[in-house]
Amino acid sequence: MATVTIKNVTKAFGDNVVLKAFDAEFQDGEFITLLGPSGCGKTTMLRMIAGFEKPTSGEIYIGGQLVSGGKTFVPPEKRGVGMVFQSYAVWPHMNVFDNVAYPLTIRHTPKAEIKSAVERVLAVVHLSQYAERFPNQLSGGQQQRVALARALVAEPTLLLLDEPLSNLDAKLRESMRFEIKELQKNLGITVVYVTHDQTEAMAMSDRIFLINRGIIEQCGSPIDIYNTPVNQFVADFLGKVDFFKGEVRDGRVVFPAMGGQSIPYEGERTGKVDVAIRPENVYFAEDGVLHGVLEKQYYLGDVDDCRVRVGEALMRVITNGFAYRTLREGQDVKLGVREMMVFPDDGLLESMLEIKT
After folding, report:
1. Are 73 and 181 in the same domain?
2. Phi, psi dihedrals of residue 247, rounded to the nearest 5°
3. Smaller CB count within 10 Å for the chain: N or C?
4. Is residue 43 domain-shared with residue 90, that is, in the same domain?
């Protein structure tokens, strides 16, 4: 059983507080992703679970056993945890078999057991035919699978992954996402995965913990966080989105920057609001509620990525690729909006924009 319980954990390096009051419980067999921008504290949390860092305060339990907290500290090698690093860290002077066998070799496991375990895990990661090759004879994806096999060979119940795909090209990253997810499902192990890539988090996770400046902004399933973000930061970080200033009046949101054009609204917000609209939720329609001018369109094959000028505001519209054949830049268009997210105008959006600039 590999539940992970984190109770009120903080971490500071001198005066720099990296994590603040982190509370979470990861269930046995879950795929958990710690997601957030660079420097938010996600890798520090992973390293504390692994035992490479000690919390400044709070407690960490693995499988119900206290491993960090107070006067208790269980070293990494005794936590039963496998870890894969961003840099792969495969030994260049060892072939694939010996790289994977290394954790068992240093434990003085009998040779027959090592052979059986390595052959089994190489089959799982589809590297059996490469057992005698050296790392410089492998592709980046194959080296990443070697690192995965080495982390799995000792049969950990908890696997920690620290941005393991960031050094791979885009197509290989995409295929490896699904390989890692399938591997986790087949083995039934708990995975804690660190990334700043929201696409990876969406594709692989059972639950996402979105961290910002050492604080958990929101945790939940990918569909929950994407469709019902708790604030503007979450909406902006996960997926494509445009923000517009508006004001709720008489069952509609009125947009000053759009020349007073409006969208029907049945929610509970009143007064001034920040409205987030994802470009896939905007569509061209003859009876659309907004009207504007198509300024730009970018044909990407499967989609047509458009920019529509609505008053003084620029709205992004992602529609199907066939639309490129019928639309032309400069034409008048009308837009419908399937969904929008309405937040209080509390200054968070302005502070986000200041950070970005």
Report:
1. yes
2. -145, 130
3. C
4. yes
Tell me: the pLDDT tens digits for 230-256? 999 999 999 999 999 999 999 999 999
Report residue 177 as tokens.
Answer: 């996402």
What is the rounded CA–CA span in Å between residue 37 and residue 238? 11
Q: What is the DSSP string of 285-313?
A: -TT-SEEEEEEEEEE-SSEEEEEEEETTE
Residue 356 has a pLDDT of 60
Structural contact between residues 282 and 332, judged by C-beta atoms closer than 8 angstroms:
no
Give the pLDDT of residue 168: 76
Per-residue pLDDT reduced to its tens digit, 124-139: 888 999 999 999 999 8
Are 135 and 146 within 8 A, CB to CB?
yes
C-alpha to C-alpha distance for 73 and 305, rounded to whole angstroms: 52
Task: Say yes or no: 126 and 260 in one domain.
Answer: no
Taking 50 as the pLDDT cut, the residues of the chain under it are none
Tokens (6 digits) for 63:
């499988």
Q: Which of 197, 232, 267 is the last residue in one of the domains?
A: 232
With the C-alpha atoms ordered 237, 241, 247, 249, is the resulting torsion angle positive or negative? negative
In this structure, are 67 and 211 located in the same domain?
yes
Q: Are residues 77 and 101 in the same domain?
A: yes
